[in-house]
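Before a colleague's protein record goes any further, I have to sign it off. Alongside the sequence sits a line of tokens, each denoting a local backbone shape. I want your independent view on whether this chain really folds as the tokens say. Where you disagree with what is written, explain briefly why. This is what I was given:
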Amino acid sequence: MVLALLLREENRKFILAQDEEGRQLDVDALLKLVATLGGGSTTTQPVRVLIDVGAQILEAGNQSVAQQWLAMTPEADVEAAIFFSHSDEIMVIDREGHVETLFSSSFRQRMGGCLVFLDQQHSRGVDLKLLPMTRAAVTLGPRLTKDRLVQACNRLRGLEKSQSLLFLIPPEVSHNMRSVLGISSDRDFTSADVLKWSMAQTCQSLDNLRPLWANQGLQYHRRIELWDSLVEQPDPSKETAIAIQEPEARTLSQLYAPWDKDEANAKGYMSECGVENGQVQELLKTLQSASGHITTSAYLHEEQEREIACEVEREQQVSRPPSYQPNKHSLHNDVRHFATFGEFPGNRPSKAVTLAFHGLANTSAGKADHPRLLAPRLYSTLDFNKTAKESQNNLMDDFCKPVNWILSSAHSDILLIVSQYEANELITIVRKSKNSRLNIYAPRLTKPMRSFRHLDFFGIGANISTQPNDSMTRCLELFSGSLYFSSFEEYKNFRSFLGLITDYLGELPDGSMTNEGFVKFFTRMSLQWPLDSPFTESPLPFLSALIHIRTRGSGYQQSHIDTIIKAMPLSAERFD
């Protein structure tokens, strides 16, 4: 099916990937050639996919290739380039150099504005949803078999409809094709020539494996003879049992010894398996080269690839936290009173709750510098703060509960974070209350996820029309470990809240701003700072420790918060 598609008129074109002197192109020249293919034509689609199944790009990494190709393409045509990382993750890089996974990027829904580079390792087994009119360039390389070529071309799932491709032929392959197929130098190639040549390479590859096949057959006959003798012996010897096993390794002398060693092995096969065995005789003839010697390739199977993909063997070891004694759940009467009346008893602070950020005191985030009065209207209960009995010598990072249930009051702007146990116990009380509301909440951990910052998704209890103000929602998202913002304006306000510069505010005195972009307190006082920031020291160590606790090692790379921690300001285009 795919072979018939490759013979269509729109897929028969080829390009000789060589310079004026007939030499092979380097990476820059090859990418320039691909960038110009169809770029100035109104009838021919430009190449947007490069499939390097022939491994012609070996001098640069995938990210470097994608970035170079993107820089050579007009900005009006494409916005980003897609490639595979060293860890086999599909990534996307934009024109500003920002790299993130494709699945968490906005380019996932608009791949029409992206270039796609597939190296040799990923030219099979990859399924991307490309546009119907996509055109690809497929490189050829030495010893490229028909199976690998067809698999690479089949990355274009729409070849049967409107997608098309062309072939990039390097000089080495061009000379080999003319020699193998007997094509004169004055005739151009077509896709039919490419398929014939790849089939010839397949036959050659299979022919090279014939000695290996014969050697495996001889080993089979040899084991059968040894097994029969082992069964017939009343007291089998240990030497016979060991002889059945194939050695796991061979010395250099065994691998590369002179030919007479192989002749001795052949005679050994004949003596063990029997001279009259016709199958053994045929297998021995297969092992013999034209000169009558036994080929050493029968004992050494080397699968060579032009592009080496190193596979690192990893053995996962689970590191569990130390054993702690759990705390018993409890619902304090003051929390029950708040759920009933929307305020604490006597409208005074209660010992059953603490400021939310004070509950992190025995964690790595609590040990980092942060304002003591951060989020003065955001509270959390003791049952939420304490999961296990605390140890003075160990941090309690592994026992921090996620923020999922929040009590709000109809009489004040206080928000009270409660545990799942408390939420379950308070449901019947809140259902009847006209003074409080139990809201469901979750931090935004992926870009497509909706935001719960306004507490308007789902709630039980009183119908509170007012939503938390922006200052409260920023503190709530910071405490819960939210990773993404809904708009560029929210992102700028959050940076200003942390004391990080975003917009140009005039010339700053020397030493008034750190390398991470944190503007010192007294400098902010003299400037027209957009928002009130309580931070007097750089908040990035505190933010990094808090996000690490909330994500629990699941990773937050390439998120909006990650760019803040790494001091990489974002532009408004990232939020479109």
